[in-house]
Amino acid sequence: MNIAMTKPFTLSPLVDLAHQKNDAATRKLGKLNQQQQNAQAKMAALQQYRRDYAAQFEEAAKQGMSPMDMQNFQRFIERLDQAIQQQQGEIAKASSSVQTGRHELMDTTRKMRSFDTLAQRHADNEKKLEAKADQRQQDEQSGRFSAMHRADKQNTNQ
Q1: Spatial CB neighbours of 96, under 8 Å, sequence gap ≥ 6
Q2: pLDDT, tens digit (0-9, with 9 covering 90-100), for 56-97
Q3: Would you state the pLDDT for residue 155?
């Protein structure tokens, strides 16, 4: 029976904190990826809408239209072009945020793994110390048993 107590790992709170930060960074990156996908989907919708509207404009122009209707079509296409340009900026921001999120996740993962390695080394060291203590205790018991056995033999031989 081992009476030596294993020492608690004093950095356990930091290990837990590193795991929490890594989990938070993972969730954040997931949200950032979703925002980027939403921005790209919005861009695709705007581009499709512009193509459809441009096709409508061409068809209406073939049929003949008033100068005022033509101006309205052109203004609306210009607004769509501005919205597309603005959305390209949003996609660029979202992509930058995703890159930042990836770097943050890599950093938190690296830190978490470092703390996990320290915790594992501590556990391995404690197991070695416990094994040594167990072996020492077994050796002491064997020594006592041998001494008692020799003493019994001497008492019996006398």
Answers
A1: none
A2: 999 998 999 999 999 999 999 999 999 999 999 999 999 999
A3: 67
CB contact at 8 A, 124 and 7: no
User: Is residue 3 scored above 90 in pLDDT?
Assistant: no
Residue 65, sorted as left (phi over 0), alpha (psi -120 to 50) or beta, turns out to be beta
Residue type, 10: T
Cβ-contact 119, 15 below 8 angstroms: yes
Report yes or no on 74 lying in a domain.
Answer: yes
CATH of the domain at 66: 1.10.287.1700
DSSP summary character for residue 11: T
Residue 59 lies in a domain: yes
Looking at the domain assignment, is residue 6 inside a domain?
Answer: no
Q: Which domain holds residue 28?
A: 16-110
Cα distance between residue 59 and residue 113, in whole Å: 62
Instruction: Count the domains in the chain.
Output: 1
Model-level pTM greater than 0.85? no
